[in-house]
Amino acid sequence: MGALSPWHIILIAIVALLLFGPNKLPELGRGFGKMFREFKDATNGNGGNITTDDQPAPVRKEINPAEVTKTESGQVQK
After folding, report:
1. pLDDT at residue 15 in the model
2. Which residues fall within 8 angstroms of residue 4, CB to CB, at 6 or more apart?
3. For the chain, how many helices (H) and strands (E)?
4. Which of 16, 23, 41, 42 has the CB geometry, 3.0–4.6 Å to 46, for a possible disulfide?
């Protein structure tokens, strides 16, 4: 069996509009979107993690402003 043609999609949309009404369709769309997003996250193994990097975030070095001085040329020196 082949893929859905544009006419099939239009027919499905009209039937859905008649069954659920224009006020309920956005809520149903959000529900399906959330369901597919959760399914995709579960199949990818993210388990709710937002980051996709395998490497940890770089560690930032703390600088005390009292230790930083400017040279005559305007460069910052520690």
Report:
1. 92
2. 12
3. 2, 2
4. 41
